[in-house]
Amino acid sequence: QVQLVESGGGLVQPGGSLRLSCAASGSISSFNAMGWYRQAPGKVRELVARVTRGGSTTYADAVKGRFAISRDNANNMLYLQMNSLKPEDTAVYYCGAAIASMGWHIDQYDYWGQGTPVTVSS
Length: 122
Prior knowledge:
The chain has strands at residues 4-7, 10-12, 18-24, 33-39, 46-52, 57-59, 67-72, 77-82, 91-98, 111-112, 116-120. With 122 residues, the protein is an all-beta fold.
């Protein structure tokens, strides 16, 4: 059993940046995919970005060119660099890990963190 703990969320002004971190209690090198999801109030949890074990990345259209996901297998960490933040990025951000699946869908993730809130507001 691996535990995931997110950190780095907070209040930021529009146009600002945040870097989210996800620390795993065990090795992440065997996870086929890891991803960041977000859930805004009253909305379903949606994929923000995912990265495979091989390093391939996928981004939601809404964050392309602004967010960057990275994976540090040596230190069992997952990151999400968020730039040019917009009010519509406000949500709770969750880190997930998929053991064998490619991580295209929320149901493919085996482990989740507790989430870290991000608020973009002036």
